[in-house]
Every structure is written in structure tokens, then in C-alpha cells.
Specification:
about 220 residues; alpha+beta; 10 strands; elongated
Length: about 220
Amino acid sequence: MKSFVSIAALVGLVTSSSVFAATLKIPMAFEYLALNGKEIATNSFSHQSELNLTPGTHKVAIRYHDMVEDDFSDSQSFVKSAPFILTLTVKGEQQYQLRPAGGKAIAKPKEYAKAPKIEVISSTDKSVAFSLEQTDIEEESFVSRLFTGNRGVDVEAAVAAATGGAQVKPTTAAAPQQAPAVAPQGDSPIHAQQMLQYWWLQADDATRKEFMSWAIKQL
């Protein structure tokens, strides 16, 4: 009985280790969105840096997403790129590392986010062949949706379809509607100021200009 259990455990170990023969790692400033037609569940509190891959060709949707110094205040704001599709052929038990092209730190995050350039290297620091497809699938910020009435694009669903082989174009947003007046949560002016500052930091430059244009008309 003991020998049977030991052999069964050994077979199980060998089988499980061969299921995922390779891994793909990304830096903190990048995030996984989808793999081979399926969305990758992530959250804002933990960063998934590693993805298990079986031998064969895979399509992985990734996005550059980092925090930078804000140009309008002493705080920090977020910068995001449109998702890009990485096609990688996995061979054997390899460990792959994705990094910015040249392996250097990103000096100008906002410029880099417009068209991210990457490279993939193996565990032996050798370049790995891959193909890269930039998309123009972008999500609207909460502030922009609030003032335009657009529902925006479901980015995760769109890139999941793209990694599944579909030729996907950005979803056309719904026709603008009059945004309903929303009472601020809480009756404190300080709370309203904090919320305004929060959404300002979340917005990109285009949304901030749109907001400023709207705000001036309200004076």
C-alpha cells in the first residue's frame, strides 16, 4: 500500500508540473487583461506579475498602467495605455520576462503610454521572438462618462475577444444623454472637495480639459 501511494503521488507530481511548463512575468507597471479569449480577473489591491502558460502559441492582452507625478498638483495620478496583444509561442519549460524595450526605466510615462514598446527575454537573458499588436480600445473615465452620458467601452470583454482570434473594433458608445443631477454623498463642502480632487487625479489630460470647459460654462 505504501509503495502504491508513493508511486501515485510521484505520478501526480510529475503530471501537475508538466501542465504549466512555462511562466510569463511582467513588471509592476503592466497588468494582464486577457489570455486566449478569457478575461483575467485582477483587482486594485494586488498585482499579478506571473502567468502560467502551457506549450504552444498564446495571445495575451496586457496594458501599461502606472502612477506618475501630477502636472497640476503635488499629488500623483494614473496613466494608462490602450491594451496591446502579445502573441508568444511557448517552447518547453521556459521562464519569460516582459519589459520595456531596451530594458530601461520609462523616463516619460505619458509618452510611453501612447505606444508602448516592449521586449521579451528568456531566463538566460536571450531575446525571444514575439509579435505585438497595438489596439485603440480605450475606456472612458468616470468623469468623462458623468459629463457626456456615454456608457463607454467594456475593455476587458473587447480584449478577451481579441485574444480569442476575433477581429474586434472598439464598441461604439451610446449616444450622449443628459446626465442626471446627482446629489453629492454627504452634506459637507469638504467631502465634495475631496471627491472632486479624487476624480481629477483619476482623469487623463483630455478629460481634465473637458471638465474645465464644462466648469467654466457653469460660472
